[in-house]
Amino acid sequence: xxxDIPESVSQRGDGAYDEENRRIQEVSNELQRLCQLHEEESxxxxxxxTRFEIEQxxxxxxxxxxxxxxxxxxVFDLGTPGPSGNENDTYVAKDTIYKVNNLLNxxxxxxxxxxxxxxxxxxxxxxxxxxxxxxxxxxxIMPVLxxxxxxxxxxxxxxxxxxxxxxxxxxxxxxxxxxxxxSYRVWDVVPRNVxxxxxxxxxxxxxxxxxxx
Length: 213
Known about the structure:
six-stranded mixed beta sheet
């Protein structure tokens, strides 16, 4: 994956940050490889399930083989249950928020991981880590994402958000919370998804991102 962003986005020079992005990309690549191998061996993708179902099974196998499987009954050990949205159940620890993503909006695990990589590139100060996978054996498998908790903060105003996005090299694109840059479109960048701390620093904790066609 190309990690060069043409917009004027401030990038971290942090080795751990770069390593985690490479790890997420490697997981995505391996899941795609395993899905393709499964489909080639079956000779009929529908006979053994849809692509989404195949991806679920290979992700479960991968997670268990690599020690990143979290049984669903152990999810509450991550932290105190926090607010839940359309696609994430959250669990709050001292310095971390864990998000169990149900894949309703992403269309699959690999597509979600691709979105996470884009988020990490554009908004590195709220970068996600892939903590693992959870679910019930043989059923729906959900990625567990990890994000640093932003303490002593509040929702940013839309004016603050527009100014911040402009500083990152994005311009407004029609509806409130939609922006475009040279290579990417970003939307749903609205107060419920953006925090500002007591020092005025901005944190986009969630957003929809896509490469421009």
